[in-house]
Amino acid sequence: MNTRTVILGTIAYTVVTFPLAVIWHVVLFEEQFRAFGYFDGEPNFALGFLTILIQGFMLSFLFPLFKLSGQALSRGLKYALLMGVFFWTSHVLALVAKQEMNGALSFVVMESFYLVIQFGIFGILIGFIHGKTQNKP
């Protein structure tokens, strides 16, 4: 395990995901997400930040364990696709399965697009981080 890449990956995931999550769910589309029943009360930003930090650490720690083919960027995007689909099933589909939701299809579409943005950017960044460290002497 390369501690530097884990730290950089954790920072990259957090810097991408936390602002994107706040802007997407609380600024741009808050009304829609409240209508979906996504929020029950006010969001807890500190706990959300901690959750994203933990996710970033775990995703960055696990990346080198996946032996994916291709250049660093390609491996980053493949990894992000795998993890993004996992998050999609546990975050989006599970929520729709657990509760009755007005506009479930709209929720699935909006959250799917959000996750494509989130994991697309993270995939590029984690690939870049690992590509840079592999090229160092």
Question: In terms of topology, how is this protein built?
Answer:
Layout: H1 3-28, H2 30-36, H3 45-62, H4 72-98, H5 104-134
Specify Rg, calculated over alpha carbons: 16 Å
Mean pLDDT: 93
* Oligomerization status of the protein chains: single chain
Distance between the termini: 17 Å
Largest sheet features: none
The secondary-structure class comes to: mainly alpha
User: What general outline do the C-alpha atoms trace?
Assistant: elongated
Q: How is this structure best described in words?
A:
The protein has 137 residues and is an all-alpha fold. The protein has one domain (3-134). Helices cover 80% and strands 0% of the residues. It has helices at 3-28, 30-36, 45-62, 72-98, 104-134. Helix 1 (3-28) runs antiparallel to helix 3 (45-62) and helix 1 (3-28) runs antiparallel to helix 5. The longest helix has 31 residues, at 104-134. The protein is elongated and about 45 Å long. The two termini are 17 Å apart.
